[in-house]
Amino acid sequence: MISAHRLGRYAEDLAAKYLVSIGWKILARNVWNQYGELDIVSSDTKAEELVIAEVRCRTKNKVQDAIDSVNARKLRTLLRASSEYVETIGYAGFWRIDLIAVTIDTRGSLEDWTLEHVKDITDGMSV
Fold it and tell me: For the whole model, what pTM was predicted?
């Protein structure tokens, strides 16, 4: 049996590799502040935006999939933590929060996974 921590770390590694493969630069991982954790901070070089990527991982055949696991409370937490981070580093450009949803079939190899990328999951929300 794979621990939830190991599975989460594996999903974050997959997400980081994916972002690099589409030409993005990883700036930081697992950044903590008073409001929570930011999984991946990256730069979408084409859009010239700072992107905070929330990575959600679920195993195949669970009742709730990874995308649906981000509720209104989690979105507010992400907005607060992201706003704090952006302010702390003094970033004045455009930024957004994306979701990287990873579904892994743990009945077989960890190599059996799917990844979905949802851009701007907070679309216009404010803190």
Answer: 0.89
Residue 118 CA to residue 69 CA, distance in Å, equals 13
Q: What are phi and psi of 70, to 5 degrees?
A: -95, 105
Distance of CA 74 to the CA centre of its chain: 12
* 48 CB neighbour count, 10 Å cutoff: 9
Q: What is the pLDDT of residues 11-26, one digit of tens each?
A: 999 999 999 999 999 9
Q: What angle do CA 107, 109, 110 make, to 5 degrees?
A: 100
Backbone angles phi, psi at 109, to 5 degrees: -80, 150
Return the CA Rg of the chain: 14
Which helix (H) or strand (E) segment holds residue 101: the answer is strand 95-104
CATH number, domain 4-118: 3.40.1350.10
